[in-house]
Amino acid sequence: MTQRRIIYFIVLFSLSLFLPANVYAQESIQWQQLSPKQQQILAPIKNDWASLPLKRRQRLNHLTREWDSLPASKKSKIKNRLQRWSRMTPEEKRAVQQRREKFQSLSPEEREKIKRKYQWYKDLPPDEQKALRHKWEKQNH
Asked: What ranges do the domains of the chain cover?
Protein backbone atom coordinates (compact mmCIF):
# COMPACT_ATOMS: atom_id res chain seq x y z
CA MET A 1 0.00 0.00 0.00
CA THR A 2 1.24 3.45 -0.77
CA GLN A 3 1.78 6.02 1.93
CA ARG A 4 -1.06 8.11 0.51
CA ARG A 5 -3.56 5.24 0.92
CA ILE A 6 -2.42 4.60 4.48
CA ILE A 7 -2.94 8.27 5.36
CA TYR A 8 -6.35 8.19 3.64
CA PHE A 9 -7.50 5.20 5.73
CA ILE A 10 -6.19 6.75 8.93
CA VAL A 11 -8.09 9.97 8.24
CA LEU A 12 -11.30 8.06 7.41
CA PHE A 13 -10.99 5.95 10.52
CA SER A 14 -10.36 9.03 12.68
CA LEU A 15 -13.41 10.79 11.25
CA SER A 16 -15.59 7.73 11.82
CA LEU A 17 -14.87 7.93 15.54
CA PHE A 18 -16.85 11.16 15.69
CA LEU A 19 -19.89 9.95 13.76
CA PRO A 20 -22.96 8.80 15.66
CA ALA A 21 -23.21 5.02 15.80
CA ASN A 22 -26.40 4.88 13.73
CA VAL A 23 -24.68 6.54 10.75
CA TYR A 24 -22.70 3.42 9.98
CA ALA A 25 -24.59 0.75 11.92
CA GLN A 26 -28.36 0.74 12.03
CA GLU A 27 -29.41 -0.21 15.49
CA SER A 28 -32.41 -2.33 16.16
CA ILE A 29 -35.39 -0.74 17.89
CA GLN A 30 -36.33 -2.93 20.83
CA TRP A 31 -39.87 -3.01 22.21
CA GLN A 32 -38.60 -1.81 25.60
CA GLN A 33 -37.15 1.32 23.96
CA LEU A 34 -40.61 2.48 22.93
CA SER A 35 -42.45 4.88 25.20
CA PRO A 36 -45.52 3.60 27.07
CA LYS A 37 -47.72 5.53 24.64
CA GLN A 38 -45.99 3.98 21.63
CA GLN A 39 -46.33 0.54 23.19
CA GLN A 40 -50.03 1.15 23.74
CA ILE A 41 -50.55 2.13 20.09
CA LEU A 42 -48.50 -0.80 18.81
CA ALA A 43 -49.83 -3.33 21.34
CA PRO A 44 -51.58 -5.46 18.69
CA ILE A 45 -48.20 -6.31 17.14
CA LYS A 46 -46.14 -6.62 20.32
CA ASN A 47 -45.51 -10.34 19.76
CA ASP A 48 -44.35 -9.68 16.18
CA TRP A 49 -42.22 -6.61 16.93
CA ALA A 50 -38.84 -8.37 17.11
CA SER A 51 -39.43 -10.19 13.82
CA LEU A 52 -40.45 -7.09 11.83
CA PRO A 53 -37.85 -5.75 9.40
CA LEU A 54 -35.81 -2.84 10.76
CA LYS A 55 -37.24 -0.37 8.25
CA ARG A 56 -40.80 -1.24 9.27
CA ARG A 57 -39.95 -0.83 12.96
CA GLN A 58 -38.34 2.53 12.18
CA ARG A 59 -41.42 3.65 10.23
CA LEU A 60 -43.77 2.55 13.01
CA ASN A 61 -41.55 4.19 15.61
CA HIS A 62 -41.68 7.45 13.66
CA LEU A 63 -45.46 7.21 13.15
CA THR A 64 -46.12 6.69 16.84
CA ARG A 65 -43.83 9.57 17.81
CA GLU A 66 -45.86 11.81 15.50
CA TRP A 67 -49.18 10.28 16.61
CA ASP A 68 -50.73 13.41 18.12
CA SER A 69 -50.23 15.37 14.91
CA LEU A 70 -51.81 12.72 12.66
CA PRO A 71 -55.36 13.20 11.39
CA ALA A 72 -57.96 10.98 13.04
CA SER A 73 -58.60 9.18 9.75
CA LYS A 74 -54.94 8.16 9.46
CA LYS A 75 -54.86 7.02 13.11
CA SER A 76 -57.93 4.88 12.50
CA LYS A 77 -56.43 3.38 9.35
CA ILE A 78 -53.19 2.51 11.18
CA LYS A 79 -55.05 0.96 14.11
CA ASN A 80 -57.17 -1.14 11.74
CA ARG A 81 -54.09 -2.40 9.91
CA LEU A 82 -52.35 -3.28 13.17
CA GLN A 83 -55.43 -5.18 14.35
CA ARG A 84 -55.76 -7.00 11.04
CA TRP A 85 -52.06 -7.97 11.12
CA SER A 86 -52.37 -9.27 14.67
CA ARG A 87 -55.23 -11.59 13.66
CA MET A 88 -53.35 -13.13 10.71
CA THR A 89 -51.82 -16.57 10.84
CA PRO A 90 -48.05 -16.89 10.30
CA GLU A 91 -48.75 -18.20 6.79
CA GLU A 92 -50.93 -15.19 5.96
CA LYS A 93 -48.23 -12.84 7.29
CA ARG A 94 -45.60 -14.53 5.12
CA ALA A 95 -47.86 -14.23 2.08
CA VAL A 96 -48.38 -10.51 2.75
CA GLN A 97 -44.64 -9.98 3.18
CA GLN A 98 -43.94 -11.84 -0.07
CA ARG A 99 -46.50 -9.72 -1.93
CA ARG A 100 -44.98 -6.56 -0.44
CA GLU A 101 -41.48 -7.63 -1.51
CA LYS A 102 -42.75 -8.48 -5.00
CA PHE A 103 -44.47 -5.08 -5.23
CA GLN A 104 -41.30 -3.28 -4.08
CA SER A 105 -39.26 -5.11 -6.73
CA LEU A 106 -41.45 -3.68 -9.51
CA SER A 107 -40.41 -0.62 -11.46
CA PRO A 108 -41.83 2.71 -10.26
CA GLU A 109 -44.06 2.80 -13.34
CA GLU A 110 -45.50 -0.65 -12.63
CA ARG A 111 -46.11 0.23 -8.98
CA GLU A 112 -47.88 3.42 -10.02
CA LYS A 113 -50.07 1.49 -12.48
CA ILE A 114 -51.10 -0.92 -9.70
CA LYS A 115 -51.81 1.98 -7.33
CA ARG A 116 -54.05 3.62 -9.94
CA LYS A 117 -55.96 0.37 -10.49
CA TYR A 118 -56.37 -0.10 -6.75
CA GLN A 119 -57.65 3.46 -6.37
CA TRP A 120 -60.10 2.85 -9.23
CA TYR A 121 -61.35 -0.23 -7.38
CA LYS A 122 -61.64 1.64 -4.05
CA ASP A 123 -63.67 4.38 -5.79
CA LEU A 124 -66.27 1.85 -6.96
CA PRO A 125 -69.52 1.55 -5.02
CA PRO A 126 -69.44 -1.28 -2.42
CA ASP A 127 -71.80 -3.51 -4.41
CA GLU A 128 -69.58 -3.27 -7.51
CA GLN A 129 -66.50 -4.02 -5.38
CA LYS A 130 -68.25 -7.10 -3.99
CA ALA A 131 -69.24 -8.27 -7.49
CA LEU A 132 -65.65 -7.89 -8.73
CA ARG A 133 -64.23 -9.73 -5.69
CA HIS A 134 -66.68 -12.56 -6.32
CA LYS A 135 -65.64 -12.69 -10.00
CA TRP A 136 -61.92 -12.71 -9.13
CA GLU A 137 -62.41 -15.42 -6.50
CA LYS A 138 -64.16 -17.60 -9.06
CA GLN A 139 -61.31 -17.12 -11.54
CA ASN A 140 -58.61 -17.92 -8.96
CA HIS A 141 -60.19 -21.09 -7.55
From this structure: 3-105, 107-141
